[in-house]
Design goal:
Elements: H1 3-17, H2 21-45, E1 50-54, H3 59-71, E2 77-79, E3 84-88, H4 92-102, H5 124-143, E4 149-157, E5 172-179, H6 187-200, E6 209-213, E7 218-221, H7 228-258, E8 263-272, E9 277-306, E10 324-349, E11 354-364, E12 367-369, E13 378-380, H8 384-398, E14 407-412, H9 426-463, H10 469-476, H11 480-494, H12 500-517, H13 519-534
Parallel strand pairs: 5-6, 11-14
Antiparallel strand pairs: 1-3, 2-3, 4-5, 6-7, 8-11, 9-10, 12-13
Helix pairs in contact: 7-8, 10-13, 11-12, 12-13
């Protein structure tokens, strides 16, 4: 072994042999911790960083993605029960584009890709079944895009077309949803799903769609077009919206009068949701106009020869008269006039949701006055004049109509004692600061005690010069005065004299005293001190 290595090994051995058990344990722990930290840093720096390739995959899509990664010999990780696939960060974009180009991500279930591999000789029945399966799968994939939906199943009934209209049956759909934990669909989202399915399936009406979740709750049930149940939800929403808007406006009106949070308004609107159409025709006989007029006149004149008995002669030819002659003249006139009577036609459609009756209830807080001899303020209700003024204001703002049967009631009740800000006392302020600063102060105190009671003794034990057993035995054999001097000097070393020049002078003085009395003992003590200095 080279001399340099021997020297280093010797110094290391002497240094280790001169340490106490506590020092050896501490040094070993520090060395092990340093080596372990270095190894972990090396492993962490050389660790391959993975990034999400695809997340929230269906089991079928995840299987196809993993097969493609295996065929490409790309490392991957699977998380979230197989729903998330991770690959190394340097190839994530390349693999994402390649997999997307292959058309691997199709979603859960079977869609229109079922027709990509059409077999020759398939019957019409098989084609219809495949079309129904593909349509159900595509609808399920689209509905599954809702963030509240975890899984979805769609079942369609598509009757075969008939030549006779009266024998043609209507299509229907049934949807079963599995919602995520703590999530639910609102009425608008449910109606959107119904409209989407009804518009996606030929011949399907929205009243023949049913939506249910896996807990058995009916989210939507198809009703008839004129069914009252089908309109009940919309009517209730309209009624609640109307009342909420009216209550909000009335409370804004009362806030400057009673104060913020000191008034409460509730309304009840009786709305008429019936649909009525009134047709009315009216005639005004005083207002007439000649529409058309028809007029005809007729006249005739003639003579006749009659006998004594007034009978015309049979052989009368009109040549002269024989007997008595008779002359006859006739005229006739006919007139028809058509008049157009003034006619008015009205087609009145009553609006849906017409207000039939409105009831308003108003509660306002009173006043609180201090009474001598009592700690709390006493509630004083508002006067009748104030309540009457409030009643008139609310009536005008709400548009109440007494002929319609609208009613209003205004009352004054205590809402609770008015909150007043009080200046915190000195004790409360000190407690508040103690609660805020107590935890950081305790943490700092614990750290300080740990440093003083644990870390400082260990550090001082490492850097403090130690007197070996050989030194003690050698000093015991010295004369009493010299031993006392040597021990005093050793104690000075223990309290922290680290200056090299002072230590050298001290060792030099002690060595001279020992050489004067006992040379052998002085050589032994000096050898031990030199070993400590070299270490």
């Amino acid at each position: 072994m080279p001399d340099a290595l021997k020297a280093v090994w010797g110094k290391t051995t002497r240094f280790w042999s001169d340490r106490t058990l506590a020092q050896r344990v501490l040094l070993g722990g520090l060395a092990a911790t340093t080596i372990l930290t270095f190894i972990m840093m090396v492993l962490w720096m050389n660790k391959v960083e993975y990034k999400v390739l695809f997340a929230k995959l269906a089991p079928e899509d995840a299987n196809r993605v993993v097969d493609m990664l295996k065929s490409s010999k790309v490392d991957y990780k699977i998380e979230d029960n197989g729903a998330t696939v991770l690959v190394p960060m340097d190839v994530v974009y390349e693999q994402r584009l390649r997999i997307a180009g292959e058309g691997v991500l199709r979603g859960e279930g079977v869609g229109y890709e079922i027709f990509d591999g059409v077999k020759v000789g398939q019957t019409d029945f098989v084609q219809r079944i495949n079309y129904q399966r593909a349509l159900q799968g595509e609808l399920a994939r689209t509905i599954n895009e809702y963030p509240e939906v975890d899984k979805v199943r769609v079942h369609l009934v598509l009757p075969q077309k008939s030549l006779f209209i009266e024998e043609q049956r209507k299509s229907s759909a049934s949807i079963v949803l599995t919602l995520k934990q703590g999530q639910k669909l609102d009425q608008k989202q449910v109606q959107g799903i119904v409209n989407f399915v009804a518009m996606s399936v030929e011949g399907l009406e929205s009243n023949r769609v049913s939506i249910t979740d896996t807990s058995g709750k009916i989210l939507y049930q198809g009703k008839g077009e004129n069914s009252l149940d089908a309109m009940s939800t919309t009517q209730l929403e309209f009624k609640n919206t109307y009342e909420a808007n009216l209550e909000g406006r009335l409370e804004q009106l009362l806030t400057p009068i009673a104060g913020p949070g000191k008034s409460l308004v509730k309304t009840n609107a009786d709305l008429d949701f019936s649909q009525r159409t009134t047709r009315r025709e009216s005639y005004d006989p005083e207002k007439t106009v000649v529409r058309s007029e028809q007029r005809s006149e007729e006249g005739s004149t003639g003579t006749a020869d009659v006998g004594a008995a007034g009978v015309p002669e049979a052989n009368f030819r009109g040549e002269g008269f024989s007997g008595t002659a008779s002359k006859q003249t006739t005229s006739r006139e006919a007139r028809t006039t058509n008049y157009e009577i003034n006619k008015e036609e009205e087609n009145i459609v009553s609006p849906v949701g017409e207000l039939k009756k409105l009831s308003v209830a108003v509660i306002v807080d009173g006043k609180y006055e201090k009474v001598q001899g009592q700690d709390k303020d006493v509630f004083v209700p508002r006067s009748a004049e104030e309540l009457e003024r409030i009643k008139q204001l609310v009536s005008k703002a709400a548009g109440l109509d007494t002929s319609r049967g609208d009613t209003i009631e205004v009352s004054s009740f205590p809402f609770g004692e008015e909150d007043r800000y009080t200046e915190p006392s000195l004790t409360q302020t000190m407690l508040e600061y103690a609660q805020r600063l107590g935890k950081p102060f305790l943490n700092g105190l614990l750290i300080f005690l740990f440093l003083v009671l644990v870390v400082r003794p260990l550090v001082m034990n490492l850097i403090r010069p130690r007197v070996t057993q050989e030194d003690i035995e050698a000093l015991e054999r010295l004369p009493e005065g010299e031993a006392r001097m040597a021990l005093a000097e050793a104690e000075e070393l223990e309290v922290g004299i680290t200056d090299s020049s002072k230590r050298l002078e001290m060792v030099k003085g002690m060595a001279m005293q020992l050489f004067e009395t006992d040379t052998d003992q002085a050589v032994g003590v000096l050898r031990n001190w030199l070993k400590q200095e070299a270490a």
